[in-house]
Amino acid sequence: MSTKRYAGLSGCALAVLLISTAFHFVRGQDRSPPPAAMRGMDMPTTSTPSGATGAAPPAAMPGMEMPATSKPPGATGPAPPAGYAEITVAPEVQQRIGVTLGTVQQTALTMNIRTVGIIRPNETKIAHIHLKTEGWVQKLFVSYTGQKVKAGDPMLSIYSPAFFTAQSEFLSALRTVSSNPDGTADRQVVVESARRRLQLWDVPEAAIERLEKTGKAQELLTMSSPISGTVLEKKVFDGQYVMPQGELYVVADLSTVWVQARVFEYELPHIEMGMPVTVTLPSLATGQFPGKVVFVDPVADEMTRSVQVRVELPNSDGQLRPGMFCHISMTHAMGTGLTVPTSAVIRTGERDIAFRAVSADHFVPVQVKISPLRFEDRFQVLEGLQAGDEVVVSANFLIDSESRLQAGGSSMAGMAGMGASNTGNGKKPR
């Protein structure tokens, strides 16, 4: 046999052998058992009754399973909300994910309103000082802002030609009456008119009496402080020509001060005239100053949706100074009610869900109805829970996710296309 023919027969035999080997390998793969589970991850298996079709629900997180058909003691009540399922979480898993419980309690319903404000002078105890005549300032007795004055203390003196003329007219009328005691009543009226003119210029009565005794007109008119207090503004200087429309001083009695604060519209129902208020200042952190609400603005600010509230504070020791920043706290007692920690309620926008613990490892989702008001770190419960119930207050979003997952898995069981049955009798899709 020639060499070329021998090589051709050998090649054909080798090709047949390769094709046969490949055919037997593919047949063996079809009959091979399913692959073993990955190391460290044991997939749970369930048995499907004979003749049943559909897919098994997805596996739960390790240590977190759906409860069996028989509920544990205490797990009574209505069915879970739509889209949720009761779940069982092993204690060691609870410790790992940080599950803690809180208690539904009957507590006092106290609305605490906190805001900030600025201290202002009491506007009812402010004096804006003007002259009632005109002239030149000759001397300032109160020469700087912040100076303390008492009612009746001299503030400045002026030379006023009109004041000098008024004194001269008063003295002339007095001399006329004294020279003719039996004169008509009209002359006495002239004297009283001249006296009244000096009084309306705020000339002290003692100065008028001194003028009557001495019979000599004073060159300078001295203006006195009408109230006791602190000079907040000084707008006059030596030698200045002053007129009645010009404001010279602003004096305020700071024995009581106001705090101007703002509260939001939804807080207004909890604010009443005369209600007690506690004020604290960052600069005086150790002190608390009691006050009361004296005014609530009848008009709301359209931009901030807030309303101004005025608080009055005693300030006999002068610690509270206008312009200081302060914190304000108001408390409105609203009786008692059933409350739950705010962290226990998951607010979805459409409904509010809490997870009630019915045993050490069993949690039931409950739809609750809560009041729109919030009392510090607690919600008032109107429906869904009872006093003494224990609810999840931390890691409840993980509990919520698992409950939704379990509810979704059980609802998908039996749906076409969700996988083959795990009985071992399913056929491989072609």
The N- and C-terminal alpha carbons lie at a distance of 49 Å
Q: How many H/I helices?
A: 6
Instruction: Name the strands of the widest sheet in spatial order.
Output: 4-13-16-15-14-17
Looking at the overall shape, the CATH architecture of the largest domain is Beta Barrel
CATH superfamily of the largest domain: RNA polymerase II/Efflux pump adaptor protein, barrel-sandwich hybrid domain
- Summarize the amount of helix as a percent range: 10-25%
> What pattern of helices and strands is seen along the backbone?
HEEHEEEEEEHHHEEEEEEEEEEEEEEH
Shape designation? elongated
Question: CATH topology of the largest domain, anyone?
Answer: OB fold (Dihydrolipoamide Acetyltransferase, E2P)
Radius of gyration: 47 Å
Q: How many domains comprise the coordinates?
A: 3
Estimate what percentage of residues fall within beta strands: 35-45%
- CATH class of the largest domain reads Mainly Beta
Would you report the number of β strands? 22
Mean pLDDT: 81
Main sheet summary: 6 strands, antiparallel, barrel
**What is the SS-derived class?**
alpha+beta
Q: Which spans have pLDDT < 50 for at least 5 consecutive residues?
A: 29-59, 66-70, 412-430
